[in-house]
Amino acid sequence: MNPQNPALARAMVFVPEGTASSGTALSYEAPFDFPAIQALAGAIEQLKLPPRAAPATVPQIVGVPEQQVIEKLKKYVKAYSTVDVRLTMETVPVGQMVSLTRIVRGYKYKQIRPLFELFTAAQLNRFETAEVRYAPNAGTLVTPPVLECTGNRYVLVQGNTRAAYCMKNGIDEMRCCVVRGIATPLPSDQRIELKNVLIGGRTVSVEDRYGGGIDKDYRAIELATHNPKETLLNV
């Protein structure tokens, strides 16, 4: 009642019949509940609108030029922006990769199998440069694994969970972005063999995973590939 009146607005929400708490109701009154009343009224107004047509384009994973990803990483990751740093997309043996973290999160690990299946269905190598395209001129990049090369080892900066999944499922190689010539040190001295990486829960702390604190702006790979200045500009 009177949902736009900050003094007189009222609302009541009833629990559906047949539930354990049926017969219970919540009462909202202005002025303290005014934002909640407006939100409820807005939800009801949406129900009055005619149904929207299904989107013409079904989201799908498609390949994109490698340089598109490399340019974003060079532009937005401070440690990669100097002229001495070289970034290339390469197929890297999983056995040559080491992790900075001793634990990957379990819920992320569960997401990897469907991601592998989507790449296979799209006839793309895992994980060549690609995007999820959901409109003719709109999409979001699937960030490839990023490795920093030191000696003959490849240190995982992005893609720990994907690499751990490969190791545990007999997948020998992945397509990755390899960084060479970088002078900025890594934030952790840990070097964990992938066969020793564990799968943990949501609540595992950064300190437990990396053996210490990690700067919040550490490399910022995802922010680079989905930079707000460029993402969704064509929508």
Characterise the protein shown here.
- This protein is α/β, with parallel strands linked by helices and 235 residues long.
- It folds into two domains: 10-48, no CATH class; 66-225, no CATH class.
- The protein contains six helices and 13 strands.
- It has a six-stranded mixed sheet with strand order 4-11-9-10-5-12. A three-stranded antiparallel sheet has the order 3-7-8, with no helix packed on it.
- Helix 3 packs across helix 4.
- It is elongated.
- The two termini are 37 Å apart.
- 23% of the residues are buried.
Secondary structure topology:
Blueprint: E1 10-14, E2 25-29, H1 34-48, E3 60-63, H2 66-76, E4 86-93, E5 97-99, E6 103-105, H3 106-121, E7 130-135, E8 138-142, E9 146-150, E10 153-158, H4 160-168, E11 173-180, E12 192-193, E13 198-200, H5 206-210, H6 221-225
Parallel strand pairs: 5-10, 6-13, 9-11
Antiparallel strand pairs: 1-2, 3-7, 4-11, 5-12, 7-8, 9-10
- Secondary structure tally, helices: 6
Q: Tell how many strands the DSSP assignment holds.
A: 13
The largest pleated sheet is described as: 6 strands, mixed
How far apart are the first and last residues' alpha carbons, in Å? 37 Å
Q: Overall pLDDT, averaged? A: 85
Oligomer: single chain
**Strand ordering within the main sheet:** 4-11-9-10-5-12
